[in-house]
Amino acid sequence: MVIVVVPPYGHRFSPQRFTQPQLLAILCLMRYEDWTFRAAEVRLAEHGELRRALELQTVPDYSTLFRFMLRVEEQLIAQVLAEVVRRFQSRKPAPGNGKSTVAVDATGLAPGAISTFFIRRREQHGGAAMPWRYWLKWLLAVDTRLRVILAQKAHQGPINDCATLRPLLDEVAPGSSIGTVLADAEFDSERNHRHIREQIGAQSIIPAKRGKPGWKIHGVRAQMRAAFPAERYRQRVHAETVFSAIKRKLSAKAPGRSLATQRKQALLLGLAYNIYKLRPLHFGLPLHA
Question: Cα torsion for 79, 61, 41, 11, to the nearest 10°?
């Protein structure tokens, strides 16, 4: 699937020792196994079956992998993600009207490998508090039936993502038929409701909790406050399930010294998870989270 989207070489004067699909596949394998760049070089040198699967004649240096990650564009990662989703949906078509329910949620990824348990124990035993650092906020649009990532964005946190909902869903809309969008109160705004219902043609379910209880609200937000569909809103828990599966089975961090590196690490993590979910379908195995 990577070969379909990614061109073999980035430039006609490329040394052509490795193809771009090979390097991107290695980056996804790194995120799946939670390897560092140096660890990836060592593991590829140790395991001949990995080299044969990736059709590698030689093992790329860790600096080659790092420079490729800096060079690869986020839009290219999004295109590969869309191709994985397309294959997933073609093999597991939606029943009934074919429209999917999309849950939108965000989580934080650690910029390093420091254990949160270590931080808590350090503070409990009278140690000085760790210096404040910004963390990476990872925003996902998840198909609640398939539990796959339809679109993703990453940026520095903490920040309110109310305005990010619309461009995130616009990435999903061209390739998927959306029937319902579920989001928490962070995305509560009349503009988001109108965009989902008028531009995308889907139903929006977002709790109207912004503002004080005595404030008068209008439009869709007033409908949400008067008669909130709590039963249908419970499907949003599948987004939490995806976050849990990723952090337990793959990684809970987006390492990097710069924000650009951390963002790409997060996007590659989402791509690696989708490929991990597609693998059982490819080999005829049962699906799991």
Answer: 20
The model carries a pTM of 0.88
- In the chain, domain spans: 2-71, 96-255
C-alpha to C-alpha distance for 116 and 107, rounded to whole angstroms: 15
Q: What share of the chain is helix, strand, coil (3-state, %, to 5)?
A: 50, 15, 35
Q: What's the rounded Cα separation, in Å, for the pair 270 and 106?
A: 12
Condensed to tens digits (0 to 9), the pLDDT of residues 19-76 reads 999 999 999 999 999 999 999 999 999 999 999 999 999 999 999 999 999 999 999 9
278 CB contacts (<8 Å, ≥6 apart)? Answer: 84, 87, 88
DSSP string across 225-252: HHS--HHHHGGGHHHHHHHHHHHHHT-S
**What residues contact residue 64 under an 8 Å CB cut-off, 6+ apart?**
18, 23
Neighbouring-strand partners of residue 180: 101, 203
Query: Cα–Cα distance between 104 and 165 in angstroms, integer?
Result: 8
Residue 108 and residue 135 in contact, taking contact as beta carbons nearer than 8 Å: yes
Name the amino acid, one letter, at 56: L
CA–CA distance, 252 with 142 (Å, rounded to integer): 18
As assigned by CATH, the class of the 96-255 domain is alpha beta
Q: Are strands 100-109 and 148-157 parallel, antiparallel or unpaired?
A: unpaired
| Neighbour tally for 133: CB within 10 Å | 9
Residue 274 identity (one-letter amino acid): N
